[in-house]
Amino acid sequence: MEAQPCRTDGSISPRLFTNPTIDKITAADVILFATPVYWWGMSAQLKLIIDKCYCRGLQLKNKKVGTIVVGGSPVDSIQYELIDKQFDCMAKYLSWDMIFQKSYYATASDELAKNKDSIKELENIGKNL
Q1: Which CATH number fits the domain that encloses residue 30?
Q2: Residues 39-79: tens digit of each pLDDT
Q3: Which residues form the domain of 85?
């Protein structure tokens, strides 16, 4: 992967694989950021996408945003709070309307999918977007 800083005109290198994803994010009415917890934070992959969004900050203002975080510790663990606070700071800076922040505890790859209450909650969020 090639990592380059933003250009002075607010664009990023056209050769970067993230450009199509960033274009979709800036065009969206609602943005859902979902991540597993890694070392008390979001995944490096999501962080890369968010970093690349920096160049398009003005195009992201006033977006409706939600987060889904899944980790291997109970949801009262500090890791979820840290990620929520990081997104709260980004939301304030970019004037996002943070419409939901959901955290889930799962230790097996299919555990969340088998949790009927959590799936129902996520389905209801989707219906209300």
Answers
A1: 3.40.50.360
A2: 999 999 899 888 888 777 778 888 999 999 999 999 999 99
A3: 19-127
Sign of CA dihedral 32, 35, 37, 40: negative
What SS3 class is residue 122?
helix
Identify whether 1 is part of a domain: no
Point out the least confidently predicted range of 32-36, 61-65, 78-82: 61-65
How does pLDDT run across 85-106, given as a tens digit for each residue? 999 999 998 899 999 999 999 9
Strand partners, 41: 38
Amino acid making up residue 108: A
Which backbone phi and psi does 119 adopt, to 5 degrees?
A: -65, -40
Helix/strand/coil percent split, the chain, to 5: 45, 20, 35
State the pLDDT at residue 89: 95
Q: What is the separation, in whole angstroms, between the first and last Cα of the chain?
A: 34
97-105/30-36 β-pairing? unpaired
The answer to whether 71 touches 80, Cβ cutoff 8 Å, is yes
